[in-house]
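Reopening: structure tokens for the fe (ii) ion complex, inputs below.
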Amino acid sequence: MGEDTAQIAVAAWTAVPLHGLADDRPLPFPLFLCTGDDAHVLYRKAGDSVDAAHLGRLRAEGVDRLFVRGDDLPAYYARIESALQDVLLDKAVPLADRADVLHGVARQVVNELFSSPIERVGLRRAQRVITATGALLLRETKAFAAVRAALDSQPELAAHGLRTSMLAMGLARAVLSADAATVGEAGLAGLLHDVGRIGADLGDSDVGHAARGAAMLQKHGLSVTVVAAVRDHHERVDGSGKPNGLRAAAASELGLLVGLADVFDDLYTHRPAGATLFDVLRVLATTGRERFDERCAQALVQLFRR
Ligand SMILES: [Fe+2]
Ligand SMILES: [Fe+2]
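Re-run output (same inputs, fresh job):
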């Protein structure tokens, strides 16, 4: 047995909060309790029911989390997806644990959304994730840092969308308005800004993806604000952007904000080895002075100072 085997054994268990587990549907996976000597014992097998009374008894005994096997995590995330907002707002669960749950659910929903042509059901699921994330961001000031820490830096489109979404929500709260509707629209626009690239990722020179994405989202009934933001996310305040060279007043305000989040994420994800977050912010401050709104650029730095 080598080191790898030991690591797999540890990584095979994930602690999950009790919140969100109660459901009328039978459990699609088994739940385990962790004993004092770190052994995992079966609490409920797959097919069993779990209701509020079960969880209440566990809480009364001082148990505040259960364990699922790593292989069962996709089924766990699917089960709690509809209760995500309740889970995220439960302050009894440490913020880092809630951020992990959010990350798991969001990755799953967004990966499915980006793996095929955009569909209404997938968009509704993404909307629910964004709404829950927005609610958390608005209530807890440390949530941005916690969720950011949970997002890894994989370069693919879905992960890029998710990170840009988080940044756009943080910027919108600081610069536009800290109401749930505004933050939610920023989150959706950030998440979906590159959907026009799905199935046709033609590289950086493909500026047509902005208009294609906007048309797709309009067809699916997303708000005018989100559609305009996706259409304009490559426009820049000084008119140097693409495809139309619109200046600040003519472009979507949210589109310009998403554009900053997008560029930051690209720079940060592809930063040279050894470069820090603050090196990236410094590069952006120097090279982007004229291209981005100054308040937005300052808000970006503030987001990471908390
Ligand atoms: Fe783009
Ligand atoms: Fe992008």
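The radius of gyration is 21 Å. The beta strands are 13-17, 31-34, 40-44, 65-69. Marking as resolved unless the reporter disagrees.
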